[in-house]
Amino acid sequence: MTDAPPEAPARDYRGTVFLPKTDFPMRGDLPKREPGWLARWETMGLRARLRAQSKGRPPFVLHDGPPYANGPLHIGTALNKILKDVINRAAQMSGLDADYVPGWDCHGLPIEWKIEEQYRAKGKDKDSVPILDFRAECRAYATHWLDVQRNEFKRLGVLGDWDGRYATMDFPSEAVIAGEIGKFLMNGSLYRGLRPVMWSPVEKTALAEAEIEYHEHVSPTLWARFRLKTASAADLAGASVVIWTTTPWTIPGNRAVAYGPEIDYALVHVEGVAEGSALVQGEFVLVALPLLPQFEKDAGLGAHSVKLLLKGAELEGAIAAHPLAGWDGAAGGYDFDVPLLPGDFVTTEAGTGFVHIAPGHGEDDFNLGRAHGLPVPETVGDDGTFTIHAPGFTGQHVFKAHDAVYAACLAQGTLVAKAKLTHSYPHSWRSKKPVIFRATPQWFIAMDDSNAIRAKAMQAIAETHFVPDIGRNRIGGMVSVRPDWCISRQRAWGVPIPVFVEKATGTPLRDQAVIDRIVDAFRVEGADAWYQPGAAQRFLGEGYDAAAYEQVMDIVDVWFESGSTHAFVLTPERGLRFPADLYLEGSDQHRGWFHSSLLESVGSRGVAPFKAILTHGFVLDEQGRKMSKSLGNVVAPQDVVKDFGADILRLWVMNTDVTEDQRIGKEILKQQAELYRRIRNTLRWLLGNLDGFEAAETVPHAALPELERWVLHRLAELDARLRRAVADHDWTGVYPELHAFCATDLSAFYFDVRKDSLYCDAQDSLRRRAARTVIDRLHRCLTTWLAPVLVATAEESWLARFPDGSVHLQDWPAIPAEWRDEALAAKWAAIRAQRRGVTGAIEDLRRAGTIGASLQARVAMAVPVELAEALTADQWAEILIVSQVALDPAAEPATQVVPAEGAKCDRCWRVLPEVGSSAAHPTLCRRCEAVVA
């Protein structure tokens, strides 16, 4: 017996498989590599090239709301700037001319405050420093932080005219702001008046509503008697009206008591009192009937009887004595009559139904006092201490005066009760200290004069597109009820209100020639020109005597400044049209920049400076808490960029619902990094399977298999989604949808199905060429669609195929109408639903160990009638990624999965009966044999 010849060694076919090949790395290594991309764009003059190629395109203008040049960026500002950058880049790539001019707000109290802190640390008195020297230090401080923030914005990948940025402290900006004030002066809307404003005793200046935030505060409360001197009802003789207030310090400024004409009041005879009560048995007090039960508890009222019920209107003409009348400490300073007056703001929600009126310390108080000719004493000075017009309290701080007021009332027998109340109270958003209402002479812009700013603003709001639409109600509700705009501040760092007032008449000088001289000087010298010696006569000119005029030294509210930015940014010189297509800021700017820009523009131009407003929420930590240093939960954008890269931070922004509050933290950023990895792997897979792709391979659309045409349909849907977002500025869900497409439609389905064809079909086969045709389209679409967000990653992906260009110089691909096929989409939705049912059965066999990979399976299945002719058995095998499929409408159960019959092909790994039938390649299937041969 002869020995059998030795078996030929098994052939290795791995070299015949067309595996993906690309230099695009799996890891982005963003923190290290992103600076290189920034340098590349700078060197190639990316922005200039974009501007050159955009000539003649329809413009898109997103006007940048100015961040404050005070300290490094925080995460909320980073979110804002990234969102703006994505929207601008997307508009540009959709075919528009989207230039972007970033800007800064540089004036105002926070910077003054920082310089004063430096002075205090050195034991230096700010008031002893010449104002021009002080302003120079403020300017240097703002310049430093502007440069720091500019570099931080650049590191985030934000593209803009950084060299041509605007700042409110630039000389030309200060000139335009002065000119805008002049417009209101000339049209009569600017006036000086005595009005109660929110005043910060700490910062010694008036504040706007936008500069106020509300915090819990413990206020001392007071119930006090106002003894009636005269009243029309004889039964009220000797009775006392009881008021309740949360501001006992306003008692020295009291000049009246308000009642509600329709409120039922009870004349109460005190017959018993609780221990410690300041009520007196036998006295008569007047309180609102609905509030009597609560008054019993608050004042310690015991047994009592109601002797008389009367409507508030019956108190008309009544006169009371001030609760401090006759007090020795005041030397007769409060011995005047206090009238009872009707007030429609008086309610029975709390207190006693009577409101003590201090005309210098409240809007309602002031208006009621003005209507009835009450005096408005200036009882409180700039620093929050009582003036000589508060006899007996002069020099005391209002927030520490309640005990002294209690003692004075006790001495006069007018103290009924005292307590404490925890409630929401206005604070300065800068110093975080409580503010007061204080009547002072200030400059106002009228809301309802002949200029009709309120009416014009409400009309503009109705015509503006809001995202989300609730913003319309927020800003509309504020504008509809807001008082006249107080634009004066008693500080030094800012644009002065360039007005002269005739001393003899108190009338503001309205002369356009004077305004023009001021504006011309500011344009060259800056607003410092206002403070130079001889400035008054210089600006007044030969026609006026400076000695006869007061030169106003207040500066203008910084909200007026930032509200005027459209006037020096949206200009022909910059190539930016007015009004802007979009204003985009945080939701708090409905009372801030959106609000002031609207009022300033409609007051000076008659129209809004924007066509649309997009608002985003605030950034919270992972537990939904506000970030604070004390909690240690602050996420700094600089740290995120260092640890993860700017592309990850940008992806986080666009993966959130920006119209709501967003959360961020290490775990959330790790999740974003995982989403980024999937997107990057998608791009890498596309690039790998495009190795060597030439345009000649392209298969015409009509010759593409249905699966490829379905992918193109999905691209058409996504293209429409992105272009709709550009048009209506609503980006919520757009990039999550793009990620889902990559993960679900591509990686988990199309790529999985087509790997076999791409790796194993002949290079010139229709199916492989068709797949590469679509992969080419996928790469072009996905890379350009991702470019507004993943600026570095998209560039890297683009250059991997087109090394001489830049993705940021591309437009989004134009999608042919023939790609959209709703009937095909419906058909493939049904096919995928059928597929999901079968893959579940395959997974059951894999978990049981019956088969390993799905290619080891044979599927017998029944298909619904509507899919009976959708695919052949071989096509179903392709879609299911199994080796064999039998279509049997009578199969029971509907799907049966068993191990496939035959042997495994060494090249494509399909299990087929035909494997082994070839003498030349006994371990290959017929397809693979043909390719190898």
TrEMBL record:
Domain Aminoacyl-tRNA synthetase class Ia: 37-664
The keyword Nucleotide-binding belongs to this UniProt entry's keyword annotation: yes
Extent of motif 'HIGH' region: 67-77
Major localisation: cytoplasm
Ranges of residues in domain Methionyl/Valyl/Leucyl/Isoleucyl-tRNA synthetase anticodon-binding: 708-860
Cofactor: Zn(2+)
Binding, Zn(2+): 905, 908, 925, 928
Motif 'KMSKS' region: chain residues: 626-630
Note describing how the cofactor binds: Binds 1 zinc ion per subunit.
Enzyme Commission number(s): 6.1.1.5
Matches recorded under Pfam families: Anticodon_1, tRNA-synt_1, zf-FPG_IleRS
Chain ranges of the Zinc finger FPG/IleRS-type domain: 904-930
Record comment regarding domains: IleRS has two distinct active sites: one for aminoacylation and one for editing. The misactivated valine is translocated from the active site to the editing site, which sterically excludes the correctly activated isoleucine. The single editing site contains two valyl binding pockets, one specific for each substrate (Val-AMP or Val-tRNA(Ile)).
Chain's role: Catalyzes the attachment of isoleucine to tRNA(Ile). As IleRS can inadvertently accommodate and process structurally similar amino acids such as valine, to avoid such errors it has two additional distinct tRNA(Ile)-dependent editing activities. One activity is designated as 'pretransfer' editing and involves the hydrolysis of activated Val-AMP. The other activity is designated 'posttransfer' editing and involves deacylation of mischarged Val-tRNA(Ile).
HAMAP family: Ile_tRNA_synth_type1
Sequence similarity: Belongs to the class-I aminoacyl-tRNA synthetase family. IleS type 1 subfamily.
Protein name: Isoleucine--tRNA ligase
Organism taxonomic ancestry: Bacteria, Pseudomonadati, Pseudomonadota, Alphaproteobacteria, Acetobacterales
